[in-house]
Design a protein that fits this description.
The chain has 162 residues and is an alpha+beta fold. The chain is built from six helices and four strands.
Length: 162
Amino acid sequence: MASFRLPNVLNSVIKAHGDQLLRAKKPKNGVGAFIFPCRKLVFNYCERSGSSKSMMEYLQKQAIKFAQENPQIEVVVQPRPSKHPVIRAFYTNGHQKTKCVRKCVVDEIPEVVKSLRDHSGHKLRKWNRYVISDTPSVRGIYSPFHVKEIHEISDRKSAKQE
């Protein structure tokens, strides 16, 4: 069994900052970093099917440009015989979203890819409340329209002259 030795420079860095390197295991969104929610896009198509013609044309002309512009997303192209063309997106939260592009024209596929790329991965749901909080207010949300008295701010000089 072969052993692997790190260079002395790396060993000294690991010894000096070992605790910090071990603590930063799971990447999180924050002030200094942004983790893209979409981690992988899989393009499935059939080589013989007529419904996959627009998908194959997109893959030949525009998919390489998309992959170069988005290096944080893994792009996989897989043939899927006798099936309609599908784009499947995998997200960092473990969810996946599938979109069939059977009736799409070549110009519509980049829009579908962009929507899958920009999606957060969470399921869509209706927001019943305006504010989501761990400690909801007893009084409710403040609005200046709830006040009965109208407060006018006037200039002091004009108030003294009258």
